[in-house]
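Hi, here's the filled form for the chain we discussed.

Project: internal
Contact: R.S.
Residues: 142
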Amino acid sequence: MLSANAKIPIFVGTRINMTILTDIENREKILQQAVIAMQEKKAKDIISLDLTDLPDAVAAYFLICHASNKTQVNAIYDYVVELVTKNCGEHPYHREGYENAEWILIDYVDVVVHVFLEDTRKFYHLEGLWADAKMKQYQSDR
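And the returned structure, exactly as it came back:
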């Protein structure tokens, strides 16, 4: 298992199979625990995008949700990290956006979690950018 501080070089234009870093069973468990955390913190419009069949995908799954305010965005982030660490033994490889809390990205290599403010999610519309991916919706606070 890689440590949270391990550095993995990724070179533009290469096709590195990152799925070897996390076994498939653990990848599914990370996804499940992140969804549970989002649901418990009342995230809105929770979806996953299965990118496994896309040749140039950067991860196996994107998990996306949004929240009403920055406090809730941070709470969702904190609880996702807490549950995944506790129940999967995985720490994020990287995170982005925590300080601004408009779009927080949590990178578990095979599973990349995106927690947005609603307007920011609409602006970037990741679901449209990855429209070829299989989408799954989860019960969420609407």
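Let me know if anything looks off before we file it.
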